[in-house]
Amino acid sequence: MKQISLRLVGTAAIAALVFLVASCGDFKKSSVVNPPSNGSLDFTTYVALGNSLTAGYQNGALYQSAQLYSYPNLIAQQTGSQNFQQPLISDPGIGGRLKIVNLVGPVIGSDPAQGGSLLNATLNRPYNNLGVPGAILYDLIDTSSFAAKAGPPRNNPFFNIVLRSSAFGSSAVTQALNLKPTFISVWIGANDVLGYASSGGTIGTDPATHSLPTDLPTFTYLYNATMNALLQGAPNAKFATANIPDVTAIPFFTTIPAVVVNPTTQQPVTVNGQFVPLIVQRHNASGNLYVGQANPIYDLILLTAMDSLKAGVGIPTALGGTGRPLGTQFVLDSLEVAKVRSATQGFNQVIASFANSNPTKVVMVDAYSILNSIKQNGYTADGVTLSSAYISGGFFGLDGVHPTSRGYAVVANEFIEAINAHFGSNIPIVPLSQVPGSAVLAKGLPKKILWPNIHLSDLQPTLKLMQQSDLY
Q1: What's the rounded Cα separation, in Å, for the pair 96 and 108?
Q2: 20 to 30 Å CA-CA from 33: which of 44, 203, 318, 431?
Q3: What does the pLDDT look like over 234-268, one tens digit per residue?
Q4: 329 vs 73, 282, 305, CA distance in Å?
């Protein structure tokens, strides 16, 4: 497979796709590289399990030039892991990759949803990176047909792309163990709450209701069963796990304010000195839907609301709108936000408990605290400053959900630093300045551009595809 070389600071610089850097706080990390050493750890056969965050999904798609910067591939490079194989998808990938196509509106376009193909499909063993976009916790041990998940209700092609054949193992966990791994990373569970959140609370992964996040007893059983199967199947391996970020803190939920915005100035409209809340469907204290004003402090408006807002939905007639409410599928109201955060906290307690019960084998990366700190303070390392602001911050890509290459490098570094601290290794971190920037540019555009006057409505086709096709 194609390799990248980031192990030492002195390696050749990697050309950036684009640099979109915003000023932010000083959550600073050192990028000093000490003499590399894995210590007692054995990365000869490193295997990664997870979802789109493990796969290296970026800008609404899975594609080779992004997969090279998946956090597992970066860890493999830094540790010298041998023959780390990923299911590489030729550019522009699968999923409808978003890219900047103009410097003035419409700014964002997308590639065909099925524009790429699997480059190393004939590999006669499981891939080392078994991250499946759209996977929930249950999917790691599920033995049902990989191909069947490409059809309704999942409509997700990636199980068949990543796992391919039951001859390699009937589940993701089985395939991982069949590689006889010496080190395993597991980052799973975000989709057990993100599915609910990204649908505005209209669908979910709870097996009883299908309208809530996965319930805590089910998550607890599945997580412990999954991790125990891995520990028992690879008794000599060491593990790095990560907990679940607060998904409501990502740009998919934080970019559009819950108030009326002037489309020309992009500033909130004021009447008598007060902001004007959007008209939305939201829940009352009894859990019943009603039409009313959004709570600008606690309600979150999804990026998928852009088409409706552009058509005047959610905007009072006195301000030129239709007066009709934004549907509940576009709003995560305060009660739903509370459910998301409660589920996340419960899941994270389960993940932490397992790691704490197996201290000689397992280290946990506190992704929840790390990403919250980046949201509040930004992140600075190796002369690069990132924030969680949509696009301009450089940490998240155009889909508002998944990190950029630099964002994934930050994730890799947090894994590496946790591994070093816990196991006494001295694995060098990834120099962020040698990792490409934050957006894909269409041919003919300058390689360095300023923050564009972006039209969020141009994201709508790919965001809808992601939401409908279980690709989170």
Answers
A1: 12
A2: 44
A3: 999 999 999 999 999 999 999 999 999 998 888 99
A4: 35, 10, 8
Where is pLDDT greater, at 153 or 419?
A: 419
pLDDT score recorded for residue 433: 94
**Which residue, among 370, 138, 351, has the nearest Cα to 240 in the 3D structure?**
351
Exposure string of 106-115, with b = 16+ CB inside 10 Å and e = fewer, is ebbbbbebeb
pTM exceeding 0.90? no
Tokens 């549907």, residue? 327
**Residue 13 placed within a domain:** no
Q: Provide the residue range defining the domain that includes 282.
A: 254-332
- State the number of CA atoms in the 13 A half-sphere of 94 facing the CB: 23
Residue count of the chain, please give it.
472
Measured distance CA(284)–CA(209) in Å, rounded: 20
The predicted structure's pLDDT at residue 37: 84
Beta pairing partners, 394? 387
Q: Within this chain, do residues 131 and 106 fall inside the same structural domain, yes or no?
A: yes
- Report strand pairing: 183-187 vs 46-50: parallel
pLDDT the model gives residue 16: 29
My answer on whether 438 and 421 are in the same domain is: yes
Task: Give the pLDDT score at 441.
Answer: 59
* Distances from the Cα of 319 to the Cα of 131, 270, 291, 292, 315, angstroms: 46, 10, 18, 16, 7
Q: What is the mean pLDDT of residues 197-215?
A: 95
Same domain, yes or no: 148 and 68: yes
Closest CA to 87 of 142, 125, 60: 125
Alpha helices in 9-63 (DSSP H): 52-55
**Are residues 304 and 321 located together in one domain of the fold?**
yes
Q: Same structural domain for residues 410 and 302?
A: no
Nearest to 179 by CA among 197, 194, 163: 163
* 3-state SS, residue 433: helix
- 292 belongs to a structural domain: yes
Same domain, 343 and 328: no
Give the domain-ending residue among 283, 305, 332.
332
Q: Among all chains, which residue has been given the structure tokens 């970019």? A: 255
CA–centroid distance for 188 within its chain? 11
pLDDT digits (tens, 9 = 90+) for 381-393: 999 999 999 888 9
Distance CA 199, CA 211 (A): 10
9 within some domain = no
Task: Report the C-alpha gap between 337 and 21 in whole angstroms.
Answer: 30
